[in-house]
Amino acid sequence: MKITMAALLSLKPLQEKLKTQIFPVKTTYKFSKLFKRVNEEAEFYTEEVNKIIDQYAVKGEDGKPRQNESGNGILLKPETIEVAQRKFSDLTNLEIDFDDIQFTLDELNDIKLSVEEFGYLLPFINE
Predict the structure, then answer these.
(1) N or C: which end of the chain has fewer CB within 10 A?
(2) Among candidates 92, 89, 97, which has minimal Cα distance to 3?
């Protein structure tokens, strides 16, 4: 199965919600495998984002990337904005071959999830 980096990263909040809940061993094993892979890919994503920032950001005197005026992002070199945005987009849309981890609806029956949270798990559900 292939899943985009964005879809995989959307599982991080669900991991936080479920990490202290108790499930049957088989379900716990599947969640453990799923979230281990999510964490590995999140680490890769962070490393790649940092490389893009390092390459395309305006840097201050201290050599660190400068924040934009609103303080919620990094200031990019004007001549590289399009290239940097494309690289960020490519990274977010990167398709990842994923282990065949599948849950049945019965395995998820006792878990309380919002519609949005359930949507994050849809690629991993086998009816």
Answers:
(1) C
(2) 97
